[in-house]
Amino acid sequence: MGRMGLRETKKQQTRTAIADAALPLFLERGFDQVTVAEVARHAGVSTNTVFNYFATKEDLFFDRQAEVEQHQAGVVRDLPPGGCPVAALRDDLRDALRVADDHTLGIQPGAASFFRTVEGSPALRAREREIAERAEAALAAALPPSPRTPFLAAALAATHRATLRELRRRVLAGDPPHTVAAELAAALTDAFDILCRCPQHP
């Protein structure tokens, strides 16, 4: 590995270490009660270093934000010729729900704490809405161009959000995350079939 590769690896390791130090603080005390300076102390870096890697405190919590925003668009872009975007997105979400350690959906130990922290913070709920809006815009840009494309992207994004909202609701009600995820995965076919008359991917 060259010097540039080592430098990038080191930067990614530092970024991950900062985010890993921040999350337990947020989960224990609530997002709004924790300062960036406290995160820096726990991570063993300066406050300026934290801001070098994360522009805002919300970015510390949603540290995989860019990945989440581009995920559905990436599924569509990777389709083979003639593939149906609706079916691909349905299968991708269903597979994610079936993966026990999936991080993009929050299906992991501590899921309830993660969801409660989001629900307890207006700032995090606002950032969630921004992430969802950018994900929908990216999906619309990846779908085959058509007068129907904005409407299809909105419907697909809404179905995805509804699935995650139901996952969160039931986990916060005390249901085991993996049980909820398995049941939602089984129900997805009917939900997505409503949208299945879609333009084919070129």
CATH homologous superfamily assignment of the largest domain: Tetracycline Repressor, domain 2
CATH top level label of the largest domain: Mainly Alpha
Q: Main beta sheet, described? A: none
Total DSSP helices: 10
The Cα radius of gyration reads 19 Å
Instruction: Kindly state the percentage of residues in helix.
Output: over 70%
Structural class: mainly alpha
Would you count the extended β strands for me? 0
Query: Which percent range describes the beta-strand content?
Result: under 5%
* Multimer state: single chain
* Parts with pLDDT < 50 across at least 5 consecutive residues: none
SSE arrangement:
Elements (H helix, E strand, L loop, with lengths): L2 H27 L6 H8 L3 H7 L3 H5 L3 H13 L7 H14 L12 H9 L2 H21 L6 H24 L4 H17 L9
Please describe what this structure looks like:
The protein is 72% helix and 0% strand. By secondary structure, the protein is mainly α. The chain has two domains: 3-61, Orthogonal Bundle (Arc Repressor Mutant, subunit A); 65-193, Orthogonal Bundle (Tetracycline Repressor, domain 2), CATH 1.10.357. Helix 5 (65-77) runs parallel beside helix 8 and helix 8 (122-142) runs antiparallel to helix 9 (149-172). The mean pLDDT is 89.
Provide a short characterization of the protein structure.
With 202 residues, the chain is mainly α.
Characteristics:
single chain, 2 domains, 202 residues, Tetracycline Repressor, domain 2, mainly alpha, Arc Repressor Mutant, subunit A
